[in-house]
């Protein structure tokens, strides 16, 4: 099955051609990071306009690189949510128009499912499994007994991990996106500032990072009032260790409760070098799968990977009526 997949949930315009949910024939990702850096974050309206401007070019490049004819495409898949509603609608309208014009079946895919199935592109999912989803907009711990059987054990009560990174980066006067910058600074810093770890109740899997973010803000504020200079590298390291302590604590607790064959770390924050290092060092006796960097951030290949199993599970849409959903749970 050859699937043409489209992803426009945020600020990446991406189109991919994936065969049987595994083989990536092409995966074109056009990032808007440089455009949004001037604003310190993604501006939804600007993201939508750039998706419109670039969509046709990305479609053409994906098809050309895959070296396939349109007649060979069996299914068109597109992210239907969650995400920025304007951005989602650009991708949905493009995918719907393409599917309708060429008489291809259409299916909407959950962006979060896409992140989980990004692990299937380079590895083989083994059930039951645990997936820790960590990205700019989401932090969730998910248990799966089989394909497309999602049990969300817990999610963030406030800020997502990536969102907290971006906000702390802004507090430190650093650029956007904050994740790679904080990760780089932390390499030469030490965990010397006593920042809180919001474990909440150890018997559940909810996350909270707003308190940690506020603690960093208060530390910077009071240091400024006293005329003290904070070491940015040490503060970056202290913040990052506090975040990763919570993630690993929750993950280890879930591993103890659920008998799983595999642990997946997915989403943009899965590209964090310190998280990768600590997960492999501290999670013992488990097969740990973390996608390569190109599949951690938003891309259409992961949507194509998820679409293969979603279509086998419940088929495509009976018509071409597909709307965007800014909020959409697994």
Largest sheet: 5 strands, mixed
- The structure class reads alpha/beta
Q: Which bin fits the share of residues in helices?
A: 40-55%
Mean pLDDT: 96
How do the SSEs run, as a string of H and E?
EEEHHEHEHEEEHHHHEHEHH
- Any idea what the radius of gyration is? 20 Å
Strand content of the residues, in percent?
15-25%
The largest sheet has its strands arranged as: 3-2-1-4-5
CATH topology-level fold name of the largest domain: Nucleotidyltransferase, domain 5
CATH-derived architecture of the largest domain = 2-Layer Sandwich
CATH superfamily of the largest domain: ATPase, nucleotide binding domain
- CATH C-level category of the largest domain: Alpha Beta
Stretches where pLDDT falls below 50 for ≥5 residues? none
Describe the global form.
globular
Discrete helix count: 11
Total strand segments: 10
The N- and C-terminal alpha carbons lie at a distance of 24 Å
Number of domains: 2
Features:
330 residues; alpha/beta; Nucleotidyltransferase, domain 5; five-stranded mixed sheet; 11 helices
């Amino acid at each position: 099955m050859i699937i043409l997949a489209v992803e426009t949930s945020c600020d990446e315009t991406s189109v991919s051609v994936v065969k049987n949910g595994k083989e990536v024939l092409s995966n074109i990702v056009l990032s808007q990071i440089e455009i949004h850096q001037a604003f310190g974050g993604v501006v939804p309206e600007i993201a939508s306009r750039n998706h419109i401007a670039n969509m046709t070019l990305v479609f053409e490049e994906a098809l050309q690189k895959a070296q396939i004819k349109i007649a060979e495409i069996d299914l068109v898949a597109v992210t239907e949510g969650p995400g920025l509603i304007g951005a989602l609608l650009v991708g949905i309208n493009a995918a719907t128009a393409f599917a309708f014009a060429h008489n291809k079946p259409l299916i909407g895919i959950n962006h979060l499912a896409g992140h989980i199935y990004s692990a299937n592109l380079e590895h083989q999912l083994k059930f039951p499994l645990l997936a820790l989803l960590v990205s700019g907009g989401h932090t969730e711990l998910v248990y799966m007994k089989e394909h497309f059987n999602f049990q969300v054990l817990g999610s963030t009560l406030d800020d997502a991990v990536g969102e907290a990174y971006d906000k702390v980066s802004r507090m430190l006067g650093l650029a956007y996106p904050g994740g790679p910058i904080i990760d780089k600074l932390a390499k030469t810093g030490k965990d010397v500032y006593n920042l809180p770890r919001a474990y909440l109740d150890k018997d559940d899997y909810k996350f909270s990072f707003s308190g940690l973010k506020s603690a960093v803000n208060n530390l910077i504020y009071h240091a400024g009032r006293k005329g003290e200079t904070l070491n940015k590298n040490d503060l970056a390291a202290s913040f990052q260790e506090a975040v990763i302590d919570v993630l690993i604590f929750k993950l280890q607790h879930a591993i103890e409760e659920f008998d799983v064959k595999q642990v997946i770390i997915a989403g943009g924050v899965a590209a964090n070098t310190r998280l990768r290092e600590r997960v492999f060092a501290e999670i013992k006796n488990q097969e740990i799968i973390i996608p390569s960097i190109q599949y951690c951030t938003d891309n259409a290949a992961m949507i194509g990977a998820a679409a293969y199993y979603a279509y086998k599970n419940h088929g495509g849409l009976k018509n071409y009526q597909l709307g965007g959903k800014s909020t959409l749970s697994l």
